[in-house]
UniProtKB/TrEMBL annotation:
<dbReference type="Pfam" id="PF04938">
    <property type="entry name" value="SIP1"/>
</dbReference>
<keyword id="KW-0963">Cytoplasm</keyword>
<dbReference type="GO" id="GO:0032797">
    <property type="term" value="C:SMN complex"/>
</dbReference>
<keyword id="KW-0507">mRNA processing</keyword>
<keyword id="KW-0508">mRNA splicing</keyword>
<comment type="subunit">
    <text>Part of the core SMN complex.</text>
</comment>
<dbReference type="InterPro" id="IPR017364">
    <property type="entry name" value="GEMIN2"/>
</dbReference>
<comment type="similarity">
    <text>Belongs to the gemin-2 family.</text>
</comment>
<dbReference type="InterPro" id="IPR035426">
    <property type="entry name" value="Gemin2/Brr1"/>
</dbReference>
<comment type="function">
    <text>The SMN complex catalyzes the assembly of small nuclear ribonucleoproteins (snRNPs), the building blocks of the spliceosome, and thereby plays an important role in the splicing of cellular pre-mRNAs.</text>
</comment>
<protein>
    <recommendedName>
        <fullName>Gem-associated protein 2</fullName>
    </recommendedName>
</protein>
<dbReference type="GO" id="GO:0000387">
    <property type="term" value="P:spliceosomal snRNP assembly"/>
</dbReference>
<dbReference type="GO" id="GO:0005681">
    <property type="term" value="C:spliceosomal complex"/>
</dbReference>
<dbReference type="GO" id="GO:0000245">
    <property type="term" value="P:spliceosomal complex assembly"/>
</dbReference>
Length: 249
């Protein structure tokens, strides 16, 4: 057979293909059994079961509002604007990211030498869902490395979530307390990468709460820039270091 005739025959076969045609033919003598004993009986059972299933399955949920790779819809409020007087420059944000990166590298080097200093850390035990214990812990402890590194990684997300709740209670016109800010920074510095989905949600919520507090500051007050600084730092780190770029200033 010539190449030209072969290609024509192949094209004719492709035109006659039927994607729903059976791949295997089963002898009419094969009987349907509850427990197949050979390949043909198994295929017959599969074919019979397939007839009870619709050819096209429709989703009964409205996914039109979902993000492309999102399996569950999470409502997020629109991003609040920032007064120009309180908006950090790109250069300033880059400096914060660089300093934060150095801090995380220092912690990483410490963790690699855990055998040397493991006896000097404070092992912290807290019920993950007990908010009262968390708040007492934050008020009675100082965020030193010996304290933060004593927390299991499973507790970091819960602690950061409680800190976000504490921040959300800041009165309009005020900023977060200095010690609370130190705890947030310490927890961010110990947050593991790559981020889990729950951790991402917590970080985004933290940044949005900070943006909300900043939005309620009076930019004309003398200490407005100072009050906005810790808020700008946390928004910057979540957006630019942890790559939630849509929240960036």
């Amino acid at each position: 057979m010539s190449l030209k005739k072969y290609l024509k025959t192949m094209k004719d076969d492709e035109d006659n293909l039927d994607i729903v045609s059976p791949c295997f033919k089963i002898s009419p003598d094969v009987q349907l059994k509850e427990v197949p004993t050979n390949g043909e009986e198994y295929l017959l059972k599969v074919i019979k079961e397939r007839k009870n299933i619709a050819a096209v399955t429709k989703c009964n949920k409205d996914y039109s509002k979902f993000a492309e790779n999102q399996s569950q819809y999470v409502h997020e409020f629109p991003r609040l604007s920032v007064p120009e007087k309180l908006k950090p420059t790109i250069e300033w944000q880059n400096m914060q990211v660089a300093d934060f990166s150095e801090t995380r590298m220092y912690i990483s080097r410490l963790l690699s030498k855990r055998k040397i200093w493991k006896n000097n850390i404070n092992i912290i035990e807290i019920k993950p869902t007990c908010v009262i214990e968390w708040k007492q812990f934050f008020s009675t402890h100082i965020p030193t490395l010996s304290c933060v590194l004593g927390l299991q990684h499973a507790l970091l997300d819960q602690g950061l979530e409680v800190l976000t709740d504490i921040i959300s209670r800041t009165k309009p016109g005020n900023t977060i307390e200095h010690k609370t800010g130190q705890w947030v920074y310490a927890f961010l510095a110990c947050t593991q990468l790559p981020l889990l989905s729950d951790t991402t949600s917590i970080l985004r919520n933290l940044a949005r709460k900070c943006a909300e507090i900043r939005f309620r500051l009076n930019p004309d007050e003398e200490n407005a820039i100072t009050a906005a600084t810790p808020l700008n730092i946390f928004i910057c780190l979540v957006a630019r270091y942890f790559r939630q770029y849509d929240l960036a200033d």
